[in-house]
Write a structure and sequence with these properties.
mainly beta; Thrombin, subunit H; seven-stranded mixed β-sheet; six-stranded antiparallel beta barrel; 6 helices; 22 strands; about 15% helix; about 30% strand; signal; Peptidase; serine-type endopeptidase activity
């Protein structure tokens, strides 16, 4: 039986010879990471113009949040376990190592009003899927090409096809686009999500084209990223929920200590009331409320119908790291 859950609602170039961002405290050793799946998006100037013209204010406001199939009942034992390897971290762009991150004060889904970098790096994602428009959330992260957005797998591909007309709007605020609208040139996801929509690997990335000669991170900055970290840590989650009681107009956040899903997935869980449209929004470790900077370690993925106050997000293991590494080595132009 296929259980339906609301999905609150990274890439495929081989690493090649391009340099990766250095790992913070990474240990030596070889880790096998499966090659991500990928799809070219608006990879020419003419295609990008068409996509940017397509997304009018009216279309964005009318784009509903995306729902998708979640875990299958009784299938947990058959699911693949996210591979865990050497802990790896890249700090936020422009972060000061001398600042200590604040502990997460509990929030189950309130507007973020403290400003900081997170209001620029987090944004709404808009796309067309199976002939209809839809919305998710995403986050700009530090990367070698300064052009990577992390989001959920179902926010780039679902039902056997990659989405089209894919754009990222950082800092979206009640219809305003203070930092512009950015088109994706390439979409990437884990092979497990690509092949069978395995909820444990609901992870994706988009490579974002420069806008007016500047890269995304040059304009809005980038959050840090971390993989293969310990579970059950203090986390902050952000997103743009668009299903009632929210309307997608404001950045919402949840915070508290993560727990392990003991039902149908191997995800992190967090007490959080965010709804559809927040899919793909970042979960961050070591988040500093004063600076708005943290280290992304998951994304909003799905909620169970029987537990609407809990949000779940995938573990960022080797597969997620492979998506990120491929994305940051892609040519964004």
């Amino acid at each position: 039986m296929h259980r339906k859950v609301a999905l609150i609602s990274v890439l495929a170039l081989a690493a090649g010879s391009a340099a990766l961002l250095p790992a913070s405290g990474a240990q030596a050793g070889v880790q096998v990471r499966p090659e991500p799946a990928q799809k070219a998006a608006a990879d020419s100037a003419s295609e990008r113009r068409q996509v940017l013209t397509y997304w009018t204010e009216r279309r964005m406001e009318a784009a509903p949040p995306l729902d998708a199939p979640g875990p299958k009942a009784g299938a947990k034992k058959a699911m693949a376990q996210p591979a865990e390897g050497t802990p790896w971290t890249a700090p936020p762009s422009g972060a000061s190592k001398s600042r200590a991150a604040s502990q997460a004060a509990r929030s189950s889904g309130t507007p973020w009003t403290k400003g900081g970098a997170v209001v620029k790096t987090t944004g709404r994602v808009f796309f067309t899927t199976q002939g209809r428009n839809a919305s998710c959330s995403g986050s700009a992260v530090t990367s070698a090409n300064k052009s990577v957005v992390l989001t959920a797998g179902h926010c780039v591909k679902m039902g056997g096809a990659f989405h089209t007309n894919w754009v990222f709007v950082p800092g979206y605020d009640n219809g305003r686009r203070p930092f512009g609208t950015w088109a994706a040139t390439r979409l990437l996801t884990t092979p497990q999500w690509n092949a069978r929509e395995d909820i444990n690997f609901d992870i994706a990335a988009a490579v974002i084209a420069p806008l007016e000669g500047k890269t995304l991170v040059d304009v809005v900055g980038g959050q840090g990223v971390a993989f293969n970290q310990p579970r059950r840590q203090q986390m902050y989650a952000f997103g743009y929920p668009a299903a009632a009681p929210y309307d997608g107009s404001k950045l919402i956040h949840c915070s508290g200590r993560a727990f392990d899903d003991v039902a149908l997935s191997k995800d992190h869980g967090l007490t959080c009331n965010m709804t559809g449209g927040s899919s793909g929004g970042p979960w961050m470790l070591n988040f500093n409320e004063s600076t708005g900077l943290g280290t992304q370690n998951s994304v909003n993925s799905f909620k169970y119908n029987f537990a609407p106050n809990w949000m779940f997000g995938p573990y960022f293991g080797n597969e997620a790291q492979a998506v990120y590494q491929a994305a940051q080595n892609a040519n964004a132009a």
